[in-house]
Design brief:
The protein has about 130 residues and is mostly helical. It has four helices and no strands.
Length: about 130
C-alpha cells in the first residue's frame, strides 16, 4: 500500500516555503511593470521595423504585459447593480424591464417550438 498522507501540510507542498503575501505579490508585479515600462522604447523600434525580435521575445513581452495590464475585454467588464423598490422605479425603467421580459418570453417560446419540431421530425423518420 502506498505511503499517503491523510492531512498534508500545505507548507511542505511548496518545498517548506511560507505562503506568498499580498505585499510580495505587489512587489513582483511592480518589478514586472518596470521591465515592461523600460522595454516600451524597444517595442516601438520593433513596430517601426527598425529592430527585429524573435518569436520568444515577442511572446515573453506579451506575457509580461498581460501580467501588469490584462486584456481590456476581461478587465473592464463593469456591471452596476441598483436595487430599488418597484414604487421607486421610473416609467422608463419599468418599460425596459417589461421589454426584456418580453424578449425572454419570445426566446423561450421559439426554443420550445424548435425542440417540438425536432421531436416531430424524429417521429416521422422513425
Amino acid at each position: 500500500m502506498p505511503n499517503v498522507r491523510k492531512n498534508p501540510n500545505p507548507v511542505k507542498s511548496t518545498g517548506s516555503l511560507p505562503p506568498v503575501t499580498p505585499i510580495e505579490v505587489d512587489r513582483v508585479r511592480r518589478s514586472v511593470l518596470d521591465v515592461v515600462r523600460n522595454n516600451i522604447p524597444k517595442v516601438r523600434e520593433v513596430l517601426k521595423g527598425d529592430k527585429n525580435w524573435s518569436n520568444q521575445q515577442v511572446r515573453l513581452f506579451s506575457v509580461m504585459l498581460n501580467k501588469v495590464m490584462p486584456d481590456l475585454h476581461h478587465s473592464f467588464n463593469e456591471h452596476s447593480v441598483e436595487h430599488k423598490k418597484v414604487d421607486q422605479l421610473s416609467i422608463q425603467e419599468l418599460e425596459q424591464i417589461a421589454a426584456r421580459a418580453d424578449e425572454l418570453d419570445d426566446s423561450v417560446v421559439e426554443h420550445k417550438e424548435v425542440i417540438k419540431q425536432e421531436i416531430d421530425s424524429g417521429k416521422e423518420k422513425g
